Amino acid sequence: MDQEQRVSSSKKSKPEVVTFKADEALLDAMKGIPNRSEFIRSAVLAALDSTCPLCGGTGILTPHQKQHLTELEQDHSIEECGDCHEMHIVCARQNRKRQNG
């Protein structure tokens, strides 16, 4: 279930109001947006959907998470994609199958 589905399934309960501080530059940038609440909601959902599944977006792993990642790296590597040039995790076993295939 992705983030949008989790939020949609919880719509049965009464929505809560969430506030945040915005500086003048952000307020100016948002002036032309007709439905700022929906825009912010969509932006938050998109950000949550792109959050690292290990660290949850903090950028820091706990010692146990680091150990699990170290174990994963035994059969995996982080490489640049030849098509989009983004970094991604590559399974060494899959590479061997392709090379020997």
Number of domains: 2
Radius of gyration: 20 Å
Low-pLDDT windows of residues: none
Structural class: mainly alpha
Estimate the strand proportion: 5-15%
User: What is the global morphology?
Assistant: elongated
Widest sheet: strand ordering: 1-2
What report would you give on this structure?
With 101 residues, the chain is mainly alpha-helical. It has two domains: 1-50; 54-101, no CATH class. The protein is built from five helices and two strands, in the order ααααββα. The chain has helices at 3-9, 24-29, 36-49, 63-72, 92-100; strands spanning 76-80, 87-91. Strands 1-2 form a two-stranded antiparallel ribbon. A hairpin with a 6-residue loop joins strand 1 and strand 2 (87-91). The longest helix is centred in the middle third of the chain and has 14 residues, at 36-49. The mean pLDDT is 86.
